[in-house]
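Researcher: I'm preparing a figure for a lab meeting and need a structural model of a single chain. I don't have an experimental structure, so a prediction will have to do for now. The sequence is pasted below. Please return the structure as tokens so I can convert it later.
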Amino acid sequence: MLKVQEIRELIKLVDDSSISDFTYESNGTKVTMKKENGEVVPVTATKPVTVEAKPEPQPEPTQVAEPAKEEKSEPKKQEEAPQAEATTDYDHEIVSPMVGTFYESPSPDDDPYVQVGDQVDASTVVCIVEAMKLFNEIEAEVKGEIVEILVDNGELVEYGQPLFRVKKK
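Model: Understood. Here is the structure written out token by token.
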């Protein structure tokens, strides 16, 4: 299965090239792209027969399984909460203000902006989130200590996704 970042790279490569049609097939997944008016337009992501056949049987078991999952997940939540409090004590989460790619340092050769245990203040840059070729510096917004880093370098992050946990000082 192709990752979102790999699909984005393929779109960019096709867009930058003189290719007008592109098809990639691997492990039963097929991606077809065509350029229309100079823009790359993804045509298909998987084989239509497989996509249409699988979703129909899945909703019924999912609906039946959901109540069972809820019953099972309640004890797990109760177990996980004390463990989380015991291992990680934090007051604030620094969240991503946009969808993009998380980078822990200004360039691959540089040290990360922050590491677990580092002291930060409100204006300390903790990471970069790259969106549409714009590199946005993300600040801590609070004074405290970084107690946990929740994402990996180069990982795609969503709007509002927690990136760091901070113990306020």
